[in-house]
Amino acid sequence: MMRKIISLALLLVTAVSAPAQTDVSIYTPGVTAEGVVYFLPKTILKITVTSTEQTYSPGEFAHYAERYLKMNGISEEERHSWQIADVKVEPYGVPDTREAYSIRFSEKSIAPLVCLTRDGIISTINVPEAIEREENQTTTAVEKSDPHEFLTEDILMATSKAKMAELTAKEIFSIRESRNDITRGQAEYIPTDGVSLKYLLENLDRQEKSLLRLFTGTTETGTHTSVFYVSPEESQKDVVVFRISSKLGILNSDNLAGAPVYLSIKNLRSLPVPVADKKKKATNSIRYCVPGRAHVKVYDSRATYCDDEVSIAQFGNIEVLSTTLLTKSANTKIVFDTATGNITSISE
């Protein structure tokens, strides 16, 4: 994520009488002195659904599969189906406009480097922005042979589909017989080196599988990803987050063409109730969040797709970090979790 980097050196207060401390105050538009405004995050749930789409196309000779190849249960009708393969729930941060603060520094204080996310959530202090690298992902396409390129002249000259199916079946049995002869050492010609032998056997397998598809048909499988966002305010139960249709795939929650998939959120109340503390009202402090925990489950009438615990900023407490860590004698590096507001590391 691109970050907006702000050097607070540009925001030094010029008044000589200003106190030598960092001033952090609750932000109110039009009232706050010139400075940097940052937000604490509000956690929303990012629900990533991976689904698979399968399309079955019957083969040209599907009707003759049992007669010539003794293959039972070969369908002659096209089928199309969807199913859920995986559901992942993770915290995702958006600015909490109720938790906005401003920072300004005096002339005698250190002016640290503050990094904000693109939408203003505090990310790091005194940590140079890391260069995000994107790895190129290469997808290798699996080559599929066209069965028709292996049809012999006799098969192509046949006057009926039944005759073509019969001759194709005989060609399949001939390929199998040739492979068996080679593996048993009974063939008239057998390559002497292993590479050539492997290539020959692989070519026979490819021919057989291609011709078999004329009887068994083909099944194409595609993977699709859908993302949904839910804003948890408190414990919730049986919330329809999306729907699934075996024919149409993943649908929005308001599309009644699919069966509902539910979300339940339980606030585990993992933190003690905060006690009023005068230090939290002090201006020389930086706010951060200690997130609470929630039990999250995604399910429908047939299965549970996700059952996990997630950190939620708004289920936790707002705490303070003294800006004495940012004096000239210290160069403290602080990293915040932009999804939950928690401090992930503090180092010199």
List keywords for this structure.
348 residues; alpha+beta; 5-stranded antiparallel sheet; 5 helices; 14 strands
What does the secondary structure layout of this molecule look like, with pairings?
Elements: E1 3-7, E2 22-26, E3 36-57, H1 65-69, E4 79-105, E5 113-117, E6 122-125, H2 153-157, H3 161-184, H4 194-216, E7 218-230, E8 236-245, E9 249-251, E10 259-267, H5 278-281, E11 285-299, E12 304-322, E13 333-336, E14 343-347
Antiparallel strand pairs: 1-5, 2-4, 3-4, 3-7, 5-6, 6-13, 8-9, 8-10, 10-11, 11-12, 13-14
How does this structure look, described?
The protein has 348 residues and is α+β, with helices and mostly antiparallel strands. It has helices spanning 65-69, 153-157, 161-184, 194-216, 278-281; strands spanning 3-7, 22-26, 36-57, 79-105, 113-117, 122-125, 218-230, 236-245, 249-251, 259-267, 285-299, 304-322, 333-336, 343-347. It contains five helices and 14 strands. The chain has a five-stranded antiparallel beta sheet with strand order 1-5-6-13-14, with no helix packed on it. The chain has a five-stranded antiparallel beta sheet with strand order 9-8-10-11-12, with no helix packed on it. A four-stranded antiparallel beta sheet has the order 2-4-3-7. A hairpin with a 3-residue loop joins strand 8 (236-245) and strand 9 (249-251). Helix 3 (161-184) runs antiparallel to helix 4. It starts with a strand and ends with a strand. Mean pLDDT is 81; it is low at 1-21, 25-32, 130-142 and 278-282.
